[in-house]
């Protein structure tokens, strides 16, 4: 079974600074997808960024980028120019290409942005 | 396009009762998945429906069941409620099951069991 681990329960960053959230996963599969979701206090789960395992190029979405290291099974999220609105719980998630839409989530990292 | 909607948003039940939660996916989306979120266990996959068929099931007891209708709307039912069933129940929809599509989540239903 696949597992996803986020080793940082809490992180903080100053507004306008850069922060990196860590995620590692364990799988024996070669075809899968990785995601970062954000869950603000409203509890609405919002997709931040996604990465297909077959793509070597790291995904980027505006201020959000990932460092995908397939061999190391590592998938970190970098948030540049942090904004107050980035404060939320961030979840790393794994989806096998062979198991439909089922997501396996990490424990989450609570990000605080200080003004 | 409207997002995923879930009703009701909040629910209070007592032990032994049963409850039904509803999820309406984004228009055109055919896959609906359900997740349970608790402080202790985190986010756990319950089940997935596609074209009215359950395609995946997580490790939950038989008290948890679901179904999907022809319009892709989905319901989940929990019978004989236990205190431990108190959680945020999230529904997510995607265009096609098993594709590269991304899942989009609803706002959740907060269930409290007293």
Q: Using CB atoms under 8 Å apart, which protein chain pair has the greatest interface?
A: A-B, 23 and 27 residues
Spans of at least 5 consecutive residues with low confidence of chain B: none
Question: Mean of the pLDDT scores of chain A?
Answer: 94
Chain-averaged pLDDT of chain B: 93
Order of helices and strands of chain A, N to C? EEEEEEEEEEEE
Give a structural overview.
The complex is a heterodimer of chains A (115) and B (114). With 115 residues, chain A is mainly beta. Chain A contains no helices and 12 strands. The mean pLDDT of chain A is 94. Chain B has 114 residues and is mainly beta. In chain B, 0% of the residues lie in helices and 53% in strands. Chain B is built from no helices and 11 strands. Chain B has strands at residues 5-7, 10-13, 19-24, 31-38, 42-50, 53-57, 64-68, 74-78, 87-94, 104-105, 109-113. The model of chain B has no long low-confidence stretch (mean pLDDT 93). The chains are: A mainly beta (115), B mainly beta (114). The interface between A and B is medium-sized, with 23 and 27 residues.
Features:
heterodimer, A: 4-stranded antiparallel β-sheet, B: 114 residues, 7-stranded mixed β-sheet, 4-stranded antiparallel β-sheet, 11 strands, 0% helix, globular
Brief synopsis:
Chain A is mainly beta. Chain A has strands at residues 3-5, 10-14, 19-21, 24-26, 32-39, 46-52, 60-61, 64-69, 74-79, 88-96, 104-105, 109-114. The mean pLDDT of chain B is 93.
Topology:
The complex is a heterodimer of chains A (115) and B (114).
Chain A (H helix, E strand, L loop, with lengths): L2 E3 L4 E5 L4 E3 L2 E3 L5 E8 L6 E7 L7 E2 L2 E6 L4 E6 L8 E9 L7 E2 L3 E6 L1
Parallel strand pairs in A: 2-12
Antiparallel strand pairs in A: 1-4, 3-9, 5-6, 5-10, 7-8, 8-9, 10-11, 10-12
Chain B lengths: L4 E3 L2 E4 L5 E6 L6 E8 L3 E9 L2 E5 L6 E5 L5 E5 L8 E8 L9 E2 L3 E5 L1
Parallel strand pairs in B: 2-11
Antiparallel strand pairs in B: 1-3, 3-8, 4-5, 4-9, 5-6, 7-8, 9-10, 9-11
């Amino acid at each position: 079974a696949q597992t996803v681990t986020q080793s940082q329960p809490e992180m903080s960053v100053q507004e306008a600074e850069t922060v990196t959230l860590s995620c590692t996963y364990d799988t024996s599969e070669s075809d899968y997808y990785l995601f970062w979701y954000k869950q603000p206090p409203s509890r609405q789960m919002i997709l931040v960024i996604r990465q297909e395992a077959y793509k070597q190029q790291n995904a980027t979405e505006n201020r959000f980028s990932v460092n995908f290291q397939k061999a190391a099974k590592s998938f970190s999220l970098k948030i540049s120019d942090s904004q107050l609105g980035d404060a939320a719980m961030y979840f790393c998630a794994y989806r096998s290409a062979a198991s439909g839409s089922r997501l396996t989530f990490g424990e989450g990292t609570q990000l605080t942005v200080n003004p | 396009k409207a997002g995923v909607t879930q009703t009701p948003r909040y629910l209070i039940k007592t032990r032994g009762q049963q409850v039904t939660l509803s999820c309406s996916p984004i228009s055109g989306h055919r896959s609906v998945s359900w997740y349970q979120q608790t402080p202790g266990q985190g986010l756990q996959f319950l089940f997935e429906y596609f074209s009215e068929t359950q395609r995946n099931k997580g490790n939950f007891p038989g008290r948890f069941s679901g179904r999907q209708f022809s319009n892709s709307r989905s319901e989940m039912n929990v019978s004989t409620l236990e205190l431990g069933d108190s959680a945020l129940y999230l529904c997510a929809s995607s265009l096609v099951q098993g594709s590269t599509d991304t899942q989009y989540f609803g706002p959740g239903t907060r269930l409290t069991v007293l």
